[in-house]
Each structure stands twice: as structure tokens, then as C-alpha cells.
Design brief:
The chain has about 50 residues and is an all-beta fold. It has one domain. It is built from no helices and two strands. A two-stranded antiparallel ribbon has the order 1-2.
Length: about 50
């Protein structure tokens, strides 16, 4: 967690467990952003997870 403080990190993940400590999640489909989660709600809200 300390390594990513004050930095932008792009994580490409197929497992939602890797996304626990992120501020935002962007879901892409065919190169387009289809969903965005700001971390205010559980990631289960996203359709594709």
C-alpha cells in the first residue's frame, strides 16, 4: 500500500480479489469503458465481476 501512495497505478486483473484497495474500477468492453465504480459501493455492484 505504501508504494502506491500519491501515485496512479493501472492494474489489469481477472480476479476481483486483486481490486480490494483501489479507489476506482473501470470495466472495459471492446476497448470502451462500460462501467465505473468509485469504491463507495461494494464491487459486487458491477455487472461483470
Amino acid at each position: 500500500e505504501q508504494i502506491t501512495t500519491d501515485k496512479t497505478v493501472i492494474v489489469i486483473a481477472h480476479r476481483s480479489s486483486l481490486l480490494r484497495n483501489v479507489d476506482r474500477v473501470y470495466m472495459l468492453e471492446d476497448g470502451r469503458i462500460t462501467e465505473v465504480d468509485t469504491g463507495d459501493e461494494p464491487l459486487t455492484r458491477l455487472k461483470h465481476l
